[in-house]
Design a protein that fits this description.
309 residues; alpha/beta; Rossmann fold; Alpha-Beta Plaits; 2 domains; six-stranded mixed β-sheet; four-stranded antiparallel β-sheet; 10 helices; 14 strands; 32% helix; elongated
Length: 309
């Protein structure tokens, strides 16, 4: 198996005041994958990215980026990384083209490049290339940050909360761009607390909370493994309460007593549904509709973070 493009081993970070932001974290990312790091605000997502990008020094551990030690061979490792931070960090008086070209030159690349034109076109910025950053909307400024990060043709692109506070149109554009980048072989790692973002884009998902990586798995496998399903029964006659004798199914009432809800594990051989329907028939509870739905990544995330908080 080829060497992973990113290998984080035993990384922890404790600040001078004694606060530990990361606890002995291991993470391996392979070339060309889209990896989503999910976690609530303050979970340690930005700290981890800052350590990998050389902005923050870890207390313990090693980081290898495209075969380079990020601590002892910082320059080579950093040149493989593009980072789109949460905060705007651009000269507001510079033009879009000058800003992106400067970022490219910082990494020793030639300034005049068809590549930069392509990046600006991909991000719908080409028509704004001569505009000053201060003249742009918030969404356009966010696009400039992405263009800056891509300017030197990095192998790994970090997107730290890429769509926080941006409109739906930009969010969808970014999703398309991420998939295009992956097609070119770029590895994309994004941190987010928007579950839909991970569900839409990621191949694998990691869940981080309180500086600990709780779980890493393929998105589909994760949803199958932990995915509970919900059965909704619409009853003919509204109920005032869950009928006696049905405690084992832990049913709940919704929709003013018109809906009985049952949550079950779809991976179990006995889901409990046949016996539930039989028990309802015994109690002469008729229903006119029955519907099942899968749990979302959000349900799984809430369950994981809640369990291991």
């Amino acid at each position: 198996m080829p060497e992973p493009i990113l290998a984080v081993t035993g990384v922890s970070k404790t600040y001078k005041g004694g606060f530990t932001a990361l606890h002995d974290l291991d993470l391996t990312i392979h070339k060309g994958e889209i990896f989503a790091l999910l976690g609530p605000n303050g979970a340690g997502k930005t700290t981890l990215i800052s350590i990998i990008c050389g902005i923050v020094t870890p207390s313990t551990g090693t980081i290898r980026v495209a075969g380079h030690d990020a601590l002892t061979d910082y320059k080579a490792a950093r040149s493989r990384i593009g980072l789109v931070p949460q905060e705007l960090s651009v000269d507001m008086f510079e033009t879009v083209l000058a800003t992106v070209t400067f970022s490219r030159r910082l990494f020793g690349r030639s300034g005049h490049s068809a590549y930069i034109e392509q990046v600006l076109r991909d991000l719908s910025l080409w028509d704004k290339r001569h505009a000053k950053i201060m003249e742009l909307s918030g969404g356009m400024k966010r696009r400039v940050l992405i263009a800056k990060a891509l300017a030197h043709e990095p192998e790994i692109l970090f997107l730290d909360e890429p769509t926080a506070g941006v409109d739906v149109a930009l969010r969808r554009d970014m999703w398309k761009l991420v998939h295009r980048l992956r097609e070119r072989g770029t590895t994309v790692i994004l941190t987010t607390h928007y579950i839909e973002e991970a569900e839409e884009m990621a191949d694998r998902v990691g869940v981080i909370n309180k500086g600990k990586l709780l779980l890493v798995d393929e998105k589909t496998a994760l949803m199958q493994k932990l995915g509970k399903r919900e059965l909704e029964l619409t009853v003919v006659e509204p109920l005032d309460a869950v009928p006696d004798g049905l405690e084992r199914w832990q049913l709940s009432l919704a929709n003013e007593g018109k809906t009985l809800r049952y949550v079950f594990d779809s991976t179990e051989e006995d889901t409990g549904i046949p016996s539930l329907l039989s028990a309802l028939a015994d109690r002469h509870i008729a229903f006119k509709d029955l519907e099942t739905s899968k749990s979302s990544l959000e349900d799984i995330f809430v369950e994981l973070v809640g369990e291991r908080a």
